[in-house]
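Hi R.,

As promised on Friday, here is the backbone we talked about, encoded as structure tokens. Could you run it through your design pipeline when you get a chance and send me back a sequence?
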């Protein structure tokens, strides 16, 4: 971040640092006001899945602007919202056929928690209210979404204001050093859910929320295959709703439309945002089954909503984004370019021994730094490697994303998640810049580099 020679700003962000002012963007590139070009290697915050300035999406939005920009949902139905709901439902697993639009990810997860609770009340199970979640995890910044989030630096300041929910460990099987196979560890992590349900009292537990492929809080964590089936079995056994937070992993980013599709998961509720509007408009959705929605409607309706829900302009963008994903076959491209990028990151891991793990699916990929690959001990936290790597890449014209790995206090990873339109040459260019970046990081923090580099 620049210290600041820029004019005083009346905005405030998360910290004092300033960034150059963005001027324009196209495809996977963004330019600042001085004409410097950056590769958007994180699609913003894993948002701009179809790339910047897609002409067909812009045309669809202009067309909608000529008709109506706002139609309030209790006064009028609107065509783009109906169309987008119909298009989305076709891509959902199981019986998920009812869509509730919102304007972002926190609103989507918050809505999922409230739908689950109202379903329990409407079906005579008002003692059920606890939603178990994982640590680390991120489900959004509103107080309800934070209550199920496991990331200390984000939750601790608000702890007295939260109805904190029970947490089990995220399935970090890659860290374990025991005699179990990876798949056996998957079952063991899932069994923590059952133990927690029994500890809390099954009659009080409403749901379990998880990111099927992790986002920024875990660095694209993928559980062993066994985990997903076992979680579903446990939820079924105790009548608990399974909520998939696909805010980051959904909309094609992992090489399937939903990350849960890699394991044929059957969640009861799906939360989406980010890639749904792909940065063209604030848009999110909660998708559930008629089986949950109907009892709520019959008992007086969903006591929840947002003014901008189902906004026609945002939904028109969403319809056009989905149609571009299909027309350009972007889910398949995310899968194949993801493989190329992951191979590139794995090649870098052979040069930089402080890369302890490369993981993720499709174009939701991350690399984690460690001080020792054998023990997977993190780097000393004070080195702030997670932050320095982003700055060094930025100086080299590449935007990547990073967080602490182990729940906010320790651990470092960076995510590389370019738009799903990325080409093979562009993937190679990204890997080259990361190579330079890691060399600079190693020099700065005195980290080891394999000789021959
Ligand atoms: N859930 C997940 C998995 C996310 O990654 C995010 C944002 O990064 C959210 C929820 C919150 O979304 P938003 O920032 O759009 O409110």
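Update: got your reply. Pasting your designed sequence below so it's all in one thread:
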């Amino acid at each position: 971040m620049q210290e600041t020679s820029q004019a005083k700003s009346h905005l405030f962000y998360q910290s004092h640092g300033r960034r150059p002012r963005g001027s324009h963007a196209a495809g996977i590139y963004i330019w600042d006001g001085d004409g410097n070009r950056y590769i958007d290697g994180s699609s913003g915050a894993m948002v701009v899945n179809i790339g910047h300035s897609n002409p067909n999406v812009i045309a669809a939005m202009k067309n909608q602007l000529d008709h109506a920009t706002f139609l309030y949902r209790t006064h009028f139905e609107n065509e783009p919202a109906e169309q987008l709901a119909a298009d989305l439902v076709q891509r959902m697993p199981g019986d998920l056929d009812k869509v509730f639009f919102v304007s972002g990810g926190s609103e989507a997860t918050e809505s999922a928690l409230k739908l689950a609770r109202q379903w329990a009340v409407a079906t005579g199970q008002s003692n059920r209210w606890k939603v178990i979640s994982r640590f680390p995890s991120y489900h959004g910044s509103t107080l309800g979404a934070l209550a199920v989030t496991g990331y200390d630096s984000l939750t601790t300041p608000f702890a007295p204001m939260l109805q904190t929910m029970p947490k089990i460990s995220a399935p970090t099987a890659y860290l374990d050093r025991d005699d179990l196979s990876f798949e056996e560890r998957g079952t063991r992590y899932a069994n923590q859910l059952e133990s927690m349900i029994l500890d809390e009292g099954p009659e009080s537990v409403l749901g379990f929320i998880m990111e099927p492929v992790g986002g920024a809080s875990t660095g694209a964590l993928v559980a062993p295959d066994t985990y997903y089936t076992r979680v579903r079995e446990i939820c079924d056994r105790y009548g608990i709703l399974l909520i998939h937070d696909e805010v980051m992993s959904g909309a094609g980013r992992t090489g399937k439309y939903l990350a849960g599709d890699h394991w044929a998961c059957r969640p009861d509720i799906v939360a989406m945002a980010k890639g749904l509007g792909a940065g063209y408009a604030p848009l999110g959705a909660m998708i559930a089954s008629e089986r949950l929605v109907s009892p709520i409607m019959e008992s007086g309706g969903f006591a929840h909503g947002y003014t901008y829900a189902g906004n026609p302009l945002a939904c028109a963008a969403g319809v056009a984004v989905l149609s571009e994903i299909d027309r350009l076959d972007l889910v398949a491209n995310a899968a194949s370019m993801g493989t190329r990028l992951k191979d590139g990151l794995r090649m870098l891991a052979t040069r930089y021994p402080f890369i302890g793990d490369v993981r993720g699916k499709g174009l939701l990929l991350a690399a984690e730094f460690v001080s020792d690959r054998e023990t997977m001990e993190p780097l000393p936290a004070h080195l702030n490697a997670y932050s320095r790597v982003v700055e060094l890449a930025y100086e080299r014209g590449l935007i990547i994303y990073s967080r602490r790995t182990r729940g906010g206090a320790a651990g470092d990873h960076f995510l590389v998640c370019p738009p799903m339109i990325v080409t093979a040459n562009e993937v190679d260019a990204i890997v080259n810049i990361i190579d330079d970046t890691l060399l600079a990081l190693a020099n700065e923090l005195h980290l080891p580099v394999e000789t021959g580099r």
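One thing I noticed while checking it: The domain at 57-327 is CATH 3.40.640.10 (Aspartate Aminotransferase; domain 2).

Thanks again,
M.
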